[in-house]
Amino acid sequence: QSALTQTPSASGSPGQSVTISCTGTSSDIGGYESVSWYQQHPGRAPKLIIHDVNKRPSGVPDRFSASKSGNTASLTVSGLQAADEADYYCSSYAGSDTVIFGGGTILTVL
Amino acid sequence: QVQLVESGGGVVQSGSSLRLSCVDSGFTFGTYGMHWVRQAPGKGLEWVALIWHDGSKTNYAESVRGRVTISRDTSKKTLFLQMDSLRVDDTAVYYCTREGGDTSHMDVWGKGTTVIVS
How many CB pairs below 8 A link A and B? Predict the structure, then answer.
């Protein structure tokens, strides 16, 4: 099973908004309301920032929002801050008790 | 405070075995599904295996199926990953994660344990 497809890199200036996309198939993203997004800073474990397509866990700023359309999910980071510079991974349930991740997007704050 | 702590990583030769452990603290271990996720050096995240909250069902990524076994000991609040016939491409940081709900999102992550296969 191939990984979900993410744009390798994205960037924006402080205060701007940036959107990261994640493309799968009807067997994963398109078939379930089970998209998650994770933020990973260098040398750290990933952190859940979005689950169930667009739900934010407690403590995650509302600058992080997400959506899904068909086989593509998107994460938008608004009001970019230096601390948002990190790797971002999407993930989806893919049926039959399997999970699939995207290849990751490096977000740079200029 | 909810916390997962992995151990058992190390440097091993190709073809050998290793058993990873993950101890939970701060939550009702037996009510959550658990996963292992790995990350090769400089690479992205790769899902490895999952086990249901009661241990009744497991599943594996194709890349490790037949060589890896996930299990849990609820009385000891510990998750395991038995890895056999290790290959060089199994080299990675292995994360233990908790499944936050019934949609396979992972809301608690350990800091990871490093496996190097030479």
Answer: 71
Interface test with A, best of B105, B106, B107, B114 (most A CBs within 10 A): B105
Q: B23 pLDDT exceeds 80?
A: yes
Tell how far CA A13 is from the center of its chain: 19
Dihedral pair phi/psi, residue A83, rounded to 5°: -70, -15
Whether A57 and B107 lie within 8 Å, measured CB to CB: yes
Integer Cα distance of A12 and A33 in angstroms: 29
CA dist., res. A54 & res. A73, Å (int):
10
Per-residue pLDDT of B25-48, as tens digits, reads 877 888 899 999 999 999 999 999
A99-101/A86-93 β-pairing: antiparallel
Nearest to B59 among A33, A38, A98 (CB): A98
A83 half-sphere exposure, CB direction, 13 A CA radius: 5
Question: Which residue, A110, A41, A38, A109, is CA-closest to A73?
Answer: A38
Give the model's pLDDT for residue A1.
Answer: 67
Please give the average per-residue pLDDT across A100-109, as a whole number: 98
